[in-house]
Amino acid sequence: MKSLVWFRSDLRIHDNPALKKASTVSDEVHAVYVYSNEQLRTHNEANVKADFLIKNLFSLEGKLNDLNIPLTIVKGSGFEEDAKLILRIAKEREIEKVFCNSEFGEDETNRDHQTLKVLKDSEIEFQSFHDKVIYTPGSLRTGQDKPYSVFTPFKRKWIEHFDMEFLDIDFNYTAKVSTNISSNINSFDFDFNQTHQVDMTNWKEGEEEANKKLEIFLNNKVKDYSKNRNDPIIDGTSRISPYLALGIISPKKCILEALKRNNFEFSSGHIGITKWIDEIVWREFYKNIMFSFPKVGRGMPFQDYSKSIKWRSDESELNAWKTGNTGFPIVDAAMRQLLQEGWMHNRLRMVVAMFFTKNMLHDWRVGEAYFMENLIDGDFSSNNGGWQWSSSTGTDAAPYFRIFNPITQSTNFDKEGLFIKKFIPELKDMDKSIIHNPPTEHRKYCNYPLPILDLKESRLRAIEAFKTAKN
Ligand SMILES: Cc1cc2nc3c(=O)[nH]c(=O)nc-3n(C[C@H](O)[C@H](O)[C@H](O)COP(=O)(O)OP(=O)(O)OC[C@H]3O[C@@H](n4cnc5c(N)ncnc54)[C@H](O)[C@@H]3O)c2cc1C
Questions:
Q1: Domain assignment of residue 190, yes or no
Q2: Rounded-to-integer distance, Cα 77 and Cα 39, Å
Q3: pLDDT tens track for 175-234
Q4: Does residue 383 have its Cβ closer than 6 Å to ligand 1?
Q5: Which residue among 155, 234, 244, 430 has its CA within the 20 to 30 Å range from the CA of 213?
Q6: Domain boundary residue, one of 292, 312, 327
């Protein structure tokens, strides 16, 4: 029997339920990936993420090749065209079953419904699996049989119902029967133009690299995670997010490896490990929000009242924020980190998002899109969740009057100013006592901009705008 595995954001061999199923039920397995610049554009995917995706496709192709599974890359256009492309390949190759791992999002869900229909009409089986989360999306519900919209009770239920069998992910792949098809990746025209400036040696492609990153983090850093996770100059977090976003490693693998080092305990034992697992659960929480409240995927705020907030729009402020020239060193250092590394530290994502939506009072959707356009780990649900949390429009969001002061955040989390110095060379010789908010004459001397706004006034303006929308 011949089957086809349709790869999407699950670019790995291990703990890949679709590939495992195909390998179990068929002698001959084919693989396909639909590459579409149009789809990447539609979802604001970053140039650096596309670069990482292409590199990972090459790596995946090598691994599949070892199993005699040819990977065919097909040029796609809009999401709605995918079904026809898959049907065409399945028919040409006399495929009986198509397997894939589901993705979150409306375009993706519609695409899969359409694919199911066209394949069914041609008597080809189509089966999908959940690999991005531990529980079937939407299956964890409150006592009132509602989807969760608050993290802590969601996590409690998540732990309560956890079954160690979920982590039974080891599978021994054996090579399949050879096909008469060769992989086309070397001749495929990705039509990719690099516009990002990220040093990709910091983000090496491939499943082995992802596993190595995880292992180094869990062996050396997780013990200090609780202490170090908020300090951006310390490389105290895993930086596994780009690999999770493209499915180069699975969340189950992350949890399994973490639990192995904590006697399989979720709530006791090592505080660094339990805290880190919490973060993986946050990821799952936001995916559930997207699944259960599809409006968030359509640009709507979770909190209805916030639809009437009168957002400001100021092109020069927006450009200052985007390029790291707001005159607030910690905000600017973070925004420059985003452009240089394609990644930003979590604490700083909150700081710059709150500065954008509260002090600047700009629409969170503009910032959300800019992050997606530049993040190597761009993940719609986590990004949307993070932006809606910061702008107090989301589930479990920060109350609107809670507004981070970027100078206080800077003194608390970058005490010595080392992160600022790393990303703002203009300030590299400045003393730590003034670097968080340099005096005007020092700014002039260093050619560093004056603040684009007054923190006190802008804070009051934001509180007023939110209060008016709420009443
Ligand atoms: C405004 C904003 C935008 C964000 N956009 C994204 C995004 O596009 N993609 C993305 O993966 N994360 C996003 N996050 C969440 C978080 O900042 C990143 O997941 C984290 O910084 C990635 O670094 P790490 O892998 O070293 O994380 P670690 O601290 O090592 O955590 C491990 C994993 O847990 C998950 N995780 C950690 N924190 C969060 C969180 N707050 N919400 C959801 N999942 C989390 C990630 O998958 C992460 O890789 C955003 C947060 C904010 C506030």
A1: no
A2: 7
A3: 999 999 999 999 999 999 999 999 999 999 999 999 999 999 999 999 999 999 999 999
A4: yes
A5: 155
A6: 292
